[in-house]
Amino acid sequence: MSNDHTAARGLARETLAGAGETPPTRRGAPTARRGRGDRQVWLYVIPVSAVFLFVFVGPLIYTAWTALHETTYYQIGEFSGLNSFVKLFSDPDLRKSIGTTLVFSLGALVIALPAGLLSAIVLNDISRFKRTVRSLFLLTWLMSQATAGTIWVWFLNPNFGPATAITTSLGFGPTDVFTTPATALLAVTLITAWWSYPQAMLLFLGALQTVPEELRESLRVDGGGIWHGFVHITLPYLRNTIVSVVVVLLMLYVQMVTIILVTTRGGPLAATETLSMRVFNQTFNEFDLSGASATAILLFAVNIVLTLVAIRFRRKETL
Q1: DSSP classification of residue 73
Q2: What is the pTM of this model?
C-alpha cells in the first residue's frame, strides 16, 4: 500500500509539472497569519485615531474656523478672514498679557525646577519610610488646582486668614496680597510653583534611579564629595530629563487657568491676566468668541514652538 501511495504522489507531481503548475505548498500560511496580524493592528489604530481626531484635531479646526468668522455671543456669523488676528495683534493689552505670561511662567519655573530636583535627590537617598515620605511630598500635586487655589485664598485672607493672624501678631498688619498688582502676581506665581513642583520631582526621581550605582561608588573611592557627584554624575544623566521637565512645566504654566481664576480672576488691573486667562475672560466675560479663538491659536503656536525646541535639543544630545 505504501508503494502505491508513493507512486500516486509521483504521478501527481509529474502531471502538475507537465501542465506548468507547481504543487501546492504551505507558504500561504505565514501570509495568512500576517494578514490577520495586520487586521489586529488596525483594530488598535482605528480607535486611537478616532479619539485623536475627536479630542484634538476636531476642536483645533473648529477654533480656527471660529477665529475666521464674526461672532455674536456664541453664534458664528459671516466670514471675516483674518480680522480677529489683526485685532489681536493691534490690541495694546496683548503685550501686557504676553509679559505677564512670561513673568508668571518663568518665575514659577525658576522655583519649581530646583525644588523638584532637590526633592528628588532627597527622596532617592532615603532608605527608611521611603513610601511615606514620597506620599507626603506628593500631597500638593494630588489635590486639584481649584482646591490648591481655594486653600491659599483662605490662608491669605486679610480678614480671617491664618496668615493675617500671624502677621498681625508680629506687628506687620493683614496680608492683603491679592489687591495690589505686584503682590498678586507674586502670590499666584508662588502658589503655582508650590502646586506643580511634585510633577518635576517625579520625573527627576525616575531619572535618578537609572544612574548606575557603580559610578557613585567609584566616586566615593576616589574621594569625591557630594558636589562632585552632582556635577559630574547626576547632571549629565539628567540633562535630557531637565529639558523635558522645563518644556512640560512651561506648557503647563502657559495654559494655566484654574489657580489664577480661583485666586485673582486675572486682576487686579489685569496684573495676573496671562494669555490663557485672557482666553477665558474673552469667552465667558466679554463673549468675544472670535477673539478668544484667535488668542487660543496663538497659545497653540507657543506650545508648538516649545515642543520643537525640546525635540531639537534631544536630537542634538543623541547625535
Answers
A1: B
A2: 0.82
